Amino acid sequence: xxxxxxxxxxxxxxxxxxxxxxxxxxxxxxxxxxxxxxxxxxxxxxxxxxxxxxxxxxxxxxxxxxxxxxxxxxxxxxxxxxxxxxxxxxxxxxxxxxxxxxxxxxxxxxxxxxxxxxxxxxxxxxxxxxxxxxxxxxxxxxxxxxxxxxxxxxxxxxxxxxxxxxxxxxxxxxxxxxxxxxxxxxxxxxxxxxxxxxxxxxxxxxxxxxxxxxxxxxxxxxxxxxxxxxxxxxxxxxxxxxxxxxxxxxxxxxxxxxxxxxx
Length: 263
Prior knowledge:
By secondary structure, this protein is α+β, with helices and mostly antiparallel strands. It has helices spanning 10-13, 60-75, 120-124, 146-157, 168-175, 225-228, 256-262; strands spanning 23-27, 30-34, 37-38, 42-43, 46-48, 57-58, 80-83, 106-114, 132-133, 138-139, 161-166, 188-190, 197-202. The protein is globular and about 50 Å long.
């Protein structure tokens, strides 16, 4: 099997998918991918960015989802989606950059749109556009477009989607909008860091018996007290915050992952 330069972790060395049954194995943050597929670097309504990272592999369900989503958003008049990291050819853990994305069921979609075919240099070094003024916990109104709302609604409305992670300010923005159907908002979950991209997570596929799902999101649209709890708290300068050092727990992957990695 083809290898990348020495020094990468074992999962990053592998350059080709494992030619076994199509299965997501383990949990989103501790697992691997069998029978993965590569997302073509360009398709109807999307372009893959930073392709040299070799992170455009996913479970066939994810590849089908992304191609379906891109066609739908193009039909709504959106410019090309910029698809970033999905998984490595056989999934597994990254040296840096992600703790999840290990089973081919997670994908990052940037909130920038590509109006035309990007140059090779632009694909490798795209400019991220943040939707959030992080210091003031506020939406950057000049960067937010009606197309973003369409993207979130279309992306979250597909039944195979388990969650979409996004910065709490973006979730608040979506909550404040008038929607005839608000059910899809339940899947849009607040999480720090996701201010220039959305992180789509699919449910465990049928046939992936060793795939570990998350619990379903809480009932409701998630626009109430839970979302308010993410807002920054006033700082009390009189309090001393104790610091503790947490030991990093070593995660043991499912046994099937050893086969996926080495054969």
